[in-house]
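Why does residue order matter? Because the sequence determines the fold. Keep that principle in mind as you read this record.
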Amino acid sequence: MTLAHPQALWLLLLLPLGAWLARRWRRRLVIGIAFAAPPGLAARAGRRARLARMVGVLRLLVLAGLIVALAGPQLGRAKVKSQAEGIDIVLALDISGSMRALDFPPGNRLDAAKRVAREFVAARHGDRIGMVVFAANSYTQCPLTTDYEVLLRLLEQVDIGDIEDGTAIGMAIGNGLNRIREQPGESRVMILLTDGMNNTGVLDPLTAAELAKSLRVKIYTIGVGTQGRAPYPFEDPIFGRRVRQVEVDIDEATLQEIADLTGGLYFRATDNEALGRIFERIDALEKVEVETETYVEYRDIGARFLWPALLLLGLEVLLRGLWLRRLP
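Structure:
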């Protein structure tokens, strides 16, 4: 709450002085009557004095309410207006067969990627985020949106085997650029996560990176997989599901070059903790300071003090008219 005329509250300091003067006057009046009047009249005067004190309190409350109303109490509600746009972000997720590797327990590489992607999306505010997935080809799983609930539901539906097996990194970049290039925002970012090397598709990854550079789209690349060999599940026709060790083969040189060309960074994630830290760092790097303008709407509430004061004033008049009339 605030006051339109706070200086009016200084008048409250006069109330104790007025109350003291009125008390002295009433005391002298009662003493004079007690010595000059018959006993019955003196007792009546004492009752009148007690009523007069009550009326005096009422008058002080009336004056206090009027003074507070005069000060102009106001209630305010702050409003914030945003003056900046968010970032446009495309997540490009590898869903090729090699993402089944079990080096990110308790699940596989895709499970880990989906988990940190969920956390990344939950930490963003006001950004448009879309998602493309890729294996031998690429398609859009979710266009750029600020409806994160829809995005997260579509993320949950992503699974290995949705696309023919292979790793088309160049096609993933190209598809992501098609999603983001028409957006009006100044800051446009792609996060590409893969565990292999480009082995299919009509678009070369470095050619796609040059195109991203011309469109001023920054690409952060993430190579997912432990060093050396990783456990990989496969179906044995006799013994059923089994796990064997396979070589981890990530084209780090190409992923590094893609990041360098576009002004992004390359990261290598060898476990769950490292993958989480990578997304946290990207989240910290790609923040836009949102300029805001704060203003306050005020509403006068002086009537809340004025009406009770008027009611108390009416009560005082009633008491004076019925019980505090002048002695005959």
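The CA atoms of residues 2 and 104 lie 57 Å apart.
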